[in-house]
Amino acid sequence: FEVTTGLHNYQQEVVERALKGENIIIWLPTGGGKTRAAVYVAKKHLETKPNAKVMVLVNKVHLVDQHYNKEFEPHLGGTFIIKKVSGENKEKDFFGLVVKQSQVVICTAQILYNALINKEEARHVELSDITLLIIDECHHTQKEEAYNKVMRLYVEKKLKGEKPLPQILGLTASPGTGGAKTLEKAVEHVLEICANLDSVIVSAKEYASELKEVVPKPRKSFKIVKERLKDPFRDHLISMMNSIHSHMNLPPDFRLKECGTQEYEADVVNLEQRGVQEKNRLLAQCALHLRQYNDALLINDTLRMIDAYRSLEEYYSKKRNNPIDGTDTFLLELFEENQVELKNLAMDSRFDNPKMDELQSTLLQQFGSGDPSRAIIFSKTRKSTQCLKDWVLKNRALQEAGIKADILIGAGNGNTYMTQNEQAETIRNFRMGSLNLLISTSVAEEGLDIPECNLVVRYGLLTNEIAQQQASGRARAENSQYAVVAQAGGREDCRERMNEYLEELTGKAIDRVQTMTPQDFCTKVSVYTLPVLNTFHTEKRSRNTASSIQLLCRSCFAPVASGSDIKLVENMYVNVNPDFKKHYTFGDQLTLERSFEDWEPGCTISCKICSKKWGNEIKYKKCAILPNLAIKNFVLESPGQERLPVKKWKDVPFTVEEFNFKEYCQENFLLD
């Protein structure tokens, strides 16, 4: 495409400084054509710079294919060699060679970061090999995000005066305020993002009115409902929670927040960790069960009472088999004694959730008109999307209005996630019209290429101003509506209004940064430019030897392994001690969408004593059966009997060695 035909005036305005070789962040709303503008910059860069090499970084695997198929390949593919690389394909293993042979490479940020620090020739890449680095959704360039790790290496080289370095082009629909509520603090946040990307931030000024025409803002409406006058189901759940509170002997210094809130959830998560650390199984188990009751209260607040009841029923159906002590028996009996009463209350239509009625009328307003419509409901959790789909399919009025709904949730392994192929298929059906309502988690807010909608509903959500702007950016059809269904004066209502203020604040902060003199801007940005090198993990790791750490089951505290049994293979942490088998039982066969060259998944595994899920077996190189463990399901015990619960393997206080296949085979007589 040429300048005259391919770009709107406002797009030409925002790329002007990039075409002169400056580092910039383009700030345009969702649907404003940021990626198209970036493709144009890449094209001009490749045509004018000798030995040019463009690297496009994204923060989600599905965006690699999307940018390749939708933007870069159609516009540049005929003239330049373009490659896409993600954890999904084998090119990552010889990424250095792929980069040498290509002119444009699209990949996840983690793959580039790994290549920058890996010294093997086939995998290694130098920043100086790249001449233009395009960073999508660049507001994620902060803290320990992969984007920021890449940019720290860049800033380090820049401060040492090492050249050449790539030109930077960041793209964002909203840098947000970073939690700031005042203009001063919001300005600091924008300056920090600019410093992290070594860039200035540009937006449409001269052609702002054209941008407004091309990307019209949807009509916003608050669908406010009154609080339920009576909610006996909720009252009954809270009385059960109070029974658990009395039984568990709460520490005297601990005050629990109000039941049915996010704050209460944070409290019981802390209590469980404390129980684990203090070897107090009563405290730890009661806290885990309270979290389930609190989840049920949150579900009851947004969805149907029966959805809340079913979430508890499902949880306790898995607990029936083997209570291992009095705590388990007490918790199980409490639920079973109240089960019939709970179910009867959940089925009583007098106390139905008024938010669901409001959601129904919002959908019927849109779909009942007879005009073809497309809508998205954004909801908080994977479970809530399933419940809403079930409701839509069983609701006669919505079915008569011709609503054809399906869910869209994040990619991952396991039955509560979607595969990437399923995601793509759902979006394709939505585009073709065989579906007209998507019920989605936040996965559809950022980046996914979803056709324009007439109606976007945010339902039972508490998120920040960035997510709000991205969601409203999905309502792109003419005369579209962005609706918020919330209880009068409730948390979602307050949060949404706060987000409106923060969105305005972001704009003012960017404006303030853009009107600084170049001298003033440089002075202020330099405060954030001194790189903070992260030596934290290495220090933490080497505190103990692997053999001095015991792994205990997180639920029953049985000691089951030593840290020295754990080895690293293909980014998985496996137990190589054959005696470990006697500690677990098998579950279902794990199925994954894609296959791997060196290993295949086996069955899920659980603790033999308490049935706590631990992970799954893998078959490595067709002969070695190895249990692949999730560390969050265990607790570590150090030589001083100190107990440490950790969420991720990178946080364990010892060094995990690479798996030596040959040695393993010799020790286990798998090889001659």
From TrEMBL:
SUPFAM superfamilies linked: P-loop containing nucleoside triphosphate hydrolases
Helicase ATP-binding domain segment(s): 15-193
Catalyzed chemical reaction(s): ATP + H2O = ADP + phosphate + H(+)
Enzyme Commission designation: 3.6.4.13
Keyword set, alphabetical order: Antiviral defense, ATP-binding, Cytoplasm, Helicase, Hydrolase, Immunity, Innate immunity, Metal-binding, Nucleotide-binding, RNA-binding, Zinc
Protein name: RNA helicase
GO molecular function, one term: RNA helicase activity
Subcellular location: Cytoplasm
Lineage per the UniProt record: Eukaryota, Metazoa, Chordata, Craniata, Vertebrata
